[in-house]
Write a structure and sequence with these properties.
By secondary structure, this protein is an alpha/beta fold. It folds into two domains: 227 residues, Alpha-Beta Barrel (TIM Barrel); 294 residues, Ribokinase (UDP-N-acetylmuramoyl-L-alanine:D-glutamate ligase, 3-Layer(aba) Sandwich), CATH 3.40.1190.20. 42% of the residues lie in helices and 15% in strands. The chain contains 19 helices and 17 strands. The radius of gyration is 26 Å and the shape is elongated. The structure holds ligand 3NM and 2-trifluoromethyl-5-methylene-5H-pyrimidin-4-ylideneamine (IFP). The site of 2-trifluoromethyl-5-methylene-5H-pyrimidin-4-ylideneamine has 14 residues, from strand 1, strand 5 and strand 7.
Length: 542
C-alpha cells in the first residue's frame, strides 16, 4: 500500500455483493464504474463464494483498486487478505477476535470492525490505537442486503450515540463510516444529524452496498453519492436557513412581514393530531388566515405536501397508524416543506417514547415543540422533572434553557419549550454538514436562544389543546413564509403572537369556556391587525 493508514479516505466506501448484479453487469464492471466516479475505498464482501473463486475475484478487484490508488479491504476472510496482500480486513462481532486479526495481519494493515452498540466502543477503546483503525456503524436504516441481521436499525440518533462514546473514551484514532440502508434520499440527513454532542465528530464516510452494486448505472449512482457528500448543505426546506440577528426591533419588522405573507399565501396546514385538538386547531388555523386540513390518509400525504405553502403539524397524541405518520414525514421532507413535531407525552409511557423515537429517526423536523416535561425528556434530562405534567416541572429557567438547546442540537431543529416562559433555540446550523469534524466545535450551549414571556397565564392550562394549538400557530407562519424568511424568526414570531393572544384572552374571559373563544378572537384580531409593535410580550436574547 503506497500510503499510510492515516491517509485513507473513508468518504465513499463501496462494499461489494455479487448476488445483486443487474443483467449485463459484472462484479468488475460495477467496481470499475464506481472507482471511476468517486468511490474512495472498496471492500470485497462475498459471503457465498468458494475460496478459489474468491481469490480470483480478489486479485482482479485488487488490480482495479491499484489502478485508482484505492485501498482494498477483504471482508472476514483473513486468509484471502494475507494471500493476496490486501490493504486490510473487515471483521464483524462474530468473526475472528480483533487482537488475533491484528496479530495475523501486522501493524500496517487497515483493520475494520462492525459496531452496533456503545459497549463495543468501550472494548475498542480498551484495546487502544494499535488495534481497530475504523468502525462500520450500523445498521442505520432497515436493509435487505444483510441476511439474518442480529441488530435493529439504530437511526441517526444511534449513530450519534456511538460517536459520543468514541469521544467519551477519547478513541481519537478511530475513524467511522455509517452503513445500512443508505441511499440518496437519506444520506444528507445522516450527515447533517449525526454529530457528537461535543461538536467534534461526525462520520468520516458512508458505506453502501445495493445503491451501487444493484444499480444499472453504477457510475451514475457513485457520482450522485459523491456530489451529496461534497455538497455540505442539507436543504430540507425550500426556504433559507440563513442566520439572522433577532434583536427586538428586527424581529417585530420580520413578524409584520411574515404575517403579511401568510395573509397573501393562505397556507395549507395539514394536521395529524389528537381528536381533542382537531376542532380547536382547525379554528386557530382559520383565525390565522390559513387553511386547515385534518387528514390521516397515507395516500394523500404527498398530494397535500405538494400544495403550495403546505406545512405539516404532527402531534403524536394522534392515534393514526405509524405508517401514516412516517409517510407524511417522508412526503413533507421530499417536498422540502416544514414539519412541526409535537411529541405529546414523550416518555410518559414506553409506548409513546418508542413511537416518538421512531418518528424522530425517520425525518427532519423544522420545529420540535413541547412542554417542559417533554423537552426535558427529549434532552435526556428527565431526572430534572418533578412530574409528567408541565405545571409540576418547577425546575429553573437555566435547566429549561439547557434542555431546549440540547433538543435543538440533537435534532438540528428549532426547539420550543413552552410554558410561562417560552424558550426557543436554533440548532439548524443553517443546514450545514461536514464529514469527520462534526459541527466544528459548536455545542448545544453555543446555540442562539430566545426567551419570550408575557407574565403567567394560568388559565392557559385549564383548556384543552392550548399547547397543541401553539403548534398550529407555528405551522401557519412556517407554511406561509417566503423563501427569504428565517425559520428562527418565524418560530419566535409565532410563539410571541400566541403568547400575546393568550394574555389578551385571559383578561377578557369569564372562565375557561369563554377563554377558548376569546383565544381564537385574540388570535384573529392580532393577525388581521398585523401590528407586532403593539405586542406586549418581552424578548430576551441569550
Ligand atoms: C454489510 C452490512 N453491514 C451492516 C451492519 O449493520 O453492520 S448493514 C450491511 C448491508 C448494507 O447494505 P445496503 O447499503 O444495501 O443497505
Ligand atoms: C458488516 C459490515 C459493517 N460495516 C462495514 C463497513 F461499513 F465497511 F465498515 N462493512 C461490513 N461488512
Amino acid at each position: 500500500m503506497g500510503y499510510s493508514k492515516q491517509d485513507v479516505d473513508y468518504s465513499l466506501y463501496l462494499v461489494t455483493d455479487s448476488t445483486m448484479l443487474p443483467q449485463g453487469t459484472t462484479l468488475y464492471s460495477q467496481v470499475e464504474a464506481a472507482l471511476r466516479n468517486g468511490v474512495t475505498l472498496v471492500q470485497l464482501r462475498e459471503k457465498e463464494t468458494d475460496t478459489k473463486i474468491f481469490i480470483e475475484e480478489a486479485l482482479e478487484v485488487q488490480k482495479l483498486c491499484k489502478q485508482f490508488k484505492v485501498p482494498l479491504i477483504i471482508n472476514d476472510r483473513i486468509d484471502v487478505a494475507l494471500a493476496i496482500d490486501a490493504d486490510g480486513v473487515h471483521v464483524g462481532q462474530d468473526d475472528m477476535p480483533i487482537p488475533m486479526v491484528r496479530k495475523l495481519v501486522g501493524p500496517q494493515k487497515i483493520v475494520g470492525w462492525s459496531v452496533g452498540y456503545p459497549h463495543e466502543v468501550d472494548q475498542l477503546a480498551k484495546w487502544g490505537p494499535g488495534m481497530v483503525d475504523y468502525i462500520g456503524i450500523g445498521m442505520v436504516f432497515p436493509t435487505s442486503t444483510k441476511k439474518n441481521p442480529k441488530k435493529l436499525p439504530m437511526g441517526p440518533l444511534g449513530v450519534s450515540r456511538i460517536l459520543d462514546t468514541l469521544e467519551e473514551r477519547d478513541a481519537h484514532w478511530c475513524r467511522t463510516v455509517a452503513i445500512g440502508g443508505l441511499h440518496p434520499n437519506n444520506i444528507e440527513r445522516v450527515l447533517y444529524q449525526c454529530t457528537s454532542m461535543d461538536g467534534r465528530r461526525s462520520v468520516d464516510g458512508i458505506s453502501v452496498v445495493s445503491d451501487i452494486m444493484a444499480a444499472s448505472d453504477a457510475g451514475a449512482a457513485a457520482a450522485n453519492l459523491r456530489q451529496i457528500l461534497d455538497k455540505g448543505r442539507y436543504s430540507f426546506l425550500d426556504f433559507s436557513l440563513c442566520d439572522r440577528s433577532t434583536d427586538r426591533e428586527t424581529l417585530l419588522n420580520v413578524a409584520n412581514h411574515i404575517i403579511t405573507q401568510v395573509t397573501e399565501s393562505r397556507p395549507l396546514v395539514h394536521h395529524i393530531t389528537n381528536k381533542v385538538h382537531q376542532n380547536f386547531g382547525a379554528n386557530v388555523t382559520l383565525a390565522l388566515g390559513s387553511s386547515p386540513i385534518m387528514s390521516e390518509i397515507k395516500e394523500e400525504a404527498s398530494d397535500l405536501a405538494n400544495v403550495p405553502h403546505a406545512a405539516l403539524l404532527l402531534n403524536t397524541g394522534s392515534v393514526a397508524p405509524i405508517d401514516v405518520l412516517e409517510a407524511a414525514i417522508d412526503a413533507y421532507n421530499a417536498h422540502k416543506r416544514p414539519i412541526v413535531f409535537d411529541p405529546v407525552g414523550y416518555s410518559a409511557t414506553a409506548t409513546r417514547r418508542t413511537l416518538n423515537d421512531t418518528l424522530l429517526s425517520c425525518g427532519q423536523f423544522t420545529c420540535i415543540k413541547g412542554n417542559s416535561g417533554e423537552i426535558l425528556s427529549l434532552a435526556g434530562m428527565a431526572g430534572k422533572m418533578k412530574g409528567v405534567d408541565a405545571h409540576e416541572c418547577e425546575c429553573g429557567k437555566e435547566v429549561l434553557i439547557q434542555a431546549t438547546r440540547l433538543v435543538a442540537f440533537k435534532f438540528k431543529t428549532i426547539a420550543v419549550c413552552s410554558g410561562e416562559f417560552d424558550f426557543i433555540a436554533d440548532g439548524t446550523m443553517k443546514g450545514a454538514y461536514s464529514l469527520s469534524v462534526g459541527s466544528k466545535g459548536i455545542q448545544a450551549k453555543d446555540l442562539p436562544c430566545v426567551i419570550v414571556e408575557n407574565g403567567s397565564i394560568p388559565i392557559m392550562g385549564d383548556i384543552t389543546a392550548s399547547g397543541c394549538s401553539l403548534g398550529s400557530t407555528i405551522a401557519c407562519l412556517l407554511g406561509g413564509s417566503g423563501e427569504e424568511a428565517n425559520v428562527f424568526d418565524i418560530v419566535i414570531s409565532a410563539v410571541a403572537l400566541y403568547k400575546v393572544a393568550g394574555k389578551l384572552a385571559s383578561t377578557r374571559c369569564q372562565g375557561s369556556g369563554t377563554f377558548h373563544v376569546q383565544l381564537i378572537d385574540a388570535l384573529y384580531q392580532l393577525f388581521h391587525a398585523n401590528n407586532p409593535r403593539s405586542w406586549s410580550c418581552n424578548f430576551e436574547k441569550l
